[in-house]
Specification:
The chain has about 475 residues and is an alpha+beta fold. It contains 14 helices and 27 strands. The chain folds into three domains: about 260 residues, Bira Bifunctional Protein, Domain 2 (BirA Bifunctional Protein, domain 2, 2-Layer Sandwich), CATH 3.30.930; about 110 residues, Anticodon-binding domain (Rossmann fold); about 70 residues, 2-Layer Sandwich (Translation Initiation Factor IF3), CATH 3.30.110. The chain is globular, with a radius of gyration of 25 Å. It binds one RNA strand of 74 nucleotides through helix 1, strand 11, strand 14, helix 10 and helix 11.
RNA sequence: CGAGAUGUAGUGUAACGGUAGCAUCCAUGCUUUGGGAGCAUGUAGUCAGAGUUCGAAUCUCUGCAUCUCGACCA
């Protein structure tokens, strides 16, 4: 039965992808616009996903020997100016504090757009010997970048992220570490977010301001556009030279440190939304969900309420003792005095992976109905098998979401060998693997003409002689082109 | 920041320059209940400021906000 009308109607993806995205955020109650333009209020439902991101990444970082710390949000302007490319890259988008304590400040303070400068200013005092290395620090923080145009989670003036900043004894070790973090992100996206990402190297024009080399995770959203969902930079000794991070090596020579920085922001939540959600609402991969299972009692007769709710709560308690994929199952029993149909819609909008329905007929037959959020499949399950079944289904949903996203990307990725093919593939919203002559001029020409950018030079891309689709010049490997969010 | 569009209860909409109305939400009560229920009562609104006018939600200007498309970006 079609509902007549209701709040939070979701625009179909096919009709208006952008509106659909905003509708999902409203329907799942993830975020609100703030009184400050371009900023976002992350509501409890949205923040719960972020907390899960923090939990999983912290565990991963610790296993790599990375320690958490916190540095100030305000950075003296002179520090930002130390590294030439860095200041050039960030100057247009920094917010500056000029007054405080009722007076004009002698030196303006910038609100961090990223923390390289303030962290490295003190790193130089922390590092004296090769024995102090590697220095592996991460911080969870907010940063501000004054962007022209914002969109919840994907691009907001203020956003939350983690930024890791390390110092190593040589370039090779730094590069290996930058790649190690890139793979950590890739695994996180695959194993937890159920988002398949392509890892690769950014072109010169797309790399981080001040970096030697930028590694990136690129994901395909359901509209075929790419989302840069995490990055890891090999900073070389650029910042070390600017901030005089020096140490005595084993040969007693004073040398500069070699650095990396790597980050993942609340944008990844936008990626999660755009990868898995459907026209009914948000879909949260079980391993990222703060509620895995919602039990909805069905009460046709008021007098049977007590009995049914008791049974529902009882099943809930049993289920909480169960695990799936080494996680505890988080269960919510929804005993609110509402029609069950309304509850179904609400939990679907919020993306809870599994719904269990229990009513008088179920109690009679000693069974319940288990419904999957990803496929909508309903199954009648005997109560004694419920724990095992739910555990299995959560596992299946986690796997299915990843597979579904991977199939989508695979089907929409093409190799092209001519400009005409390139243009038509782009119109079909594909990821395109094509030859490029390696020059910034050609890259810019392609961007200006089509809006497509080089997302990355994929790491698993094999060497292959070819001709640039734009200039016709020689190319040694294919690179990934796409339009980006 | 450039081009365009739109701003009316929490949400979605209506009102020729002339009493701001409807639906929904929310609150209360009753009846209901295997996919967004029904009835009754109640609360709640013209983005902000200026101008034109006897009279402005409506016309004009300015500002602000949101959306779309560019430029910028995690």
């Amino acid at each position: 039965m079609e509902p007549k009308n209701f709040e939070n109607k979701i625009t179909p993806r096919s009709e208006d992808y952008s509106q659909w995205y905003l509708d999902i955020i409203a329907a799942a109650d993830l975020a609100d616009y703030s009184p400050v333009k371009g900023c976002m209020i992350i509501k409890p439902n949205g923040y719960a996903i972020w907390e899960r991101v923090q939990e999983v990444l912290n565990k991963k970082f610790k296993s790599y020997g990375v320690k958490n710390a916190y540095f100030p949000m305000l950075i003296p302007e002179r520090l930002l100016k130390r590294e030439a490319q860095h200041v050039e890259g960030f100057a247009p988008e920094v917010a500056v504090v000029t007054h405080a304590g009722g007076a004009k400040l002698d030196e303006p303070l910038i609100v961090r757009p990223t923390s390289e400068t303030i962290m490295y200013e003190v790193y130089k005092d922390w590092i004296h010997s090769y024995r102090d290395l590697p220095l592996l620090i991460n911080q969870w923080a907010n940063v501000i970048r004054w962007e022209m145009k914002t969109k919840p989670f994907l691009r907001t003036t203020e956003f939350l992220w983690q930024e890791g900043h390390t110092v190593h004894k040589d370039l090779q070790e730094a590069d290996i570490f930058a790649q190690k973090m890139l793979h950590a992100y890739k695994e996180f996206f695959a194993d937890y977010m159920a988002i398949p990402v392509i890892i690769g190297v950014k072109s010169e024009s797309e790399k981080f301001a001040g970096a030697l080399k930028t590694y990136t995770c690129e994901a395909m959203m359901q509209d075929g556009k790419a989302l840069q969902i995490a990055t890891s930079h090999n900073l070389g000794d650029n910042f070390a030279r600017a901030f005089e991070i020096k140490f005595l090596n084993e040969e007693n020579n004073e040398v500069y440190g070699w650095q990396t920085s790597w980050g993942l922001s609340t944008r990844s939540i936008g990626g999660l939304i755009m990868t898995h959600s459907d026209d009914k609402g948000l879909v949260v991969p079980p391993k990222m969900a703060s509620t895995h299972v919602v039990i909805v009692p069905i009460i046709p007769k008021p007098e049977s309420r007590g009995e049914i709710e008791t049974k529902a709560l009882e099943l809930g308690e049993l289920l909480k003792k169960e695990t799936f994929l080494d996680q505890d199952i988080l269960v919510h029993v929804d005993v609110r005095d509402m029609r069950h149909g309304e509850k179904y819609f609400e939990w679907e909008k919020k993306g809870v992976p599994v719904r269990i329905e229990i009513g008088p007929k179920d109690i009679e037959k000693n069974s319940v109905v288990v419904v999957r959020r990803d496929t909508g499949e309903k199954e009648i399950v005997a109560m004694e098998n419920l724990n095992a079944k739910v555990s299995e289904v959560l596992d299946l949903i986690q796997v299915n979401l990843y597979e579904r996203a991977l199939v989508m990307r695979t089907e929409n990725t093409v190799e092209v060998n001519s400009w005409d093919e390139f243009v038509s593939a782009l119109e079909d919203r594909k990821f395109i693997l094509a030859h490029w002559d390696g020059t910034a001029e050609t890259e810019k020409m392609i961007k200006d003409e089509t809006g497509a950018t080089i997302r990355c030079i994929p790491m698993d891309q094999k060497a292959e002689e070819g001709k640039c689709i734009k200039s016709g010049n020689a190319s040694k490997t294919r690179v990934l082109f796409a339009k980006a969010h």
